[in-house]
Write a structure and sequence with these properties.
Helix 1 packs across helix 4. The protein is flat. About 65% of the residues lie in helices and about 0% in strands. It has two domains: about 10-75; about 90-150. The protein is an all-alpha fold and about 150 residues long.
């Protein structure tokens, strides 16, 4: 994930948030469209033809380096978005460090879960923290697998 701000679960709200957090006028200029058009596309109450297209959503995320729109889309479809790293060749020692990091992230995830269970129930904040730890843990596994892919003989 590319941000520390909680991700909206609604795709349209995510589009609005990314555009406004970046700066509507600057984003519009980079998209080559009038700022008013982008304001309309990001307006949740807009009923005109100015709706964000799939191309708008992709470009906005690339320009802003912000994945909240695709994260919201994945949530809507019952999944999660995990950004994979660029594949690089790494040393055996670096790979072992990554594998050890998986165990550390596993422990942190389970520690967060244990702490939340102390009172026998989960609050929204506890669930959010567990969810975030789970994503960090999953990402460490996927990153390691991706780096191993870079070591595959062609």
């Amino acid at each position: 994930m590319s941000h520390k701000i909680p991700c909206p679960t609604d795709v349209h709200e995510a589009f609005r948030a990314v555009v406004h957090d970046y700066d509507v006028a600057q984003m519009a200029a980079k998209l080559g469209m009038p700022a008013g058009t982008l304001y309309n596309k990001a307006n949740l109450n807009e009923s005109s033809a100015h709706k964000p297209t799939l191309a708008d959503a992709v470009l906005v995320q690339v320009i802003a380096s912000d994945t909240r729109i695709v994260e919201a889309m994945a949530h809507t479809l019952g999944g999660v978005f995990v950004k994979l790293p660029t594949v690089q060749a790494i040393s055996d020692v670096a790979l072992l460090e990554m594998v050890a990091d998986i165990s550390i992230k596993n422990g942190q995830f389970h520690g967060e879960l244990k702490e939340a269970l102390e009172d026998g129930k989960f609050s929204r904040d506890e669930h959010a923290a567990i969810h975030q730890r789970a994503l960090i843990y999953i990402t460490s596994i996927l990153e390691t697998v991706s780096r191993i892919e870079g070591m595959v003989d062609a």
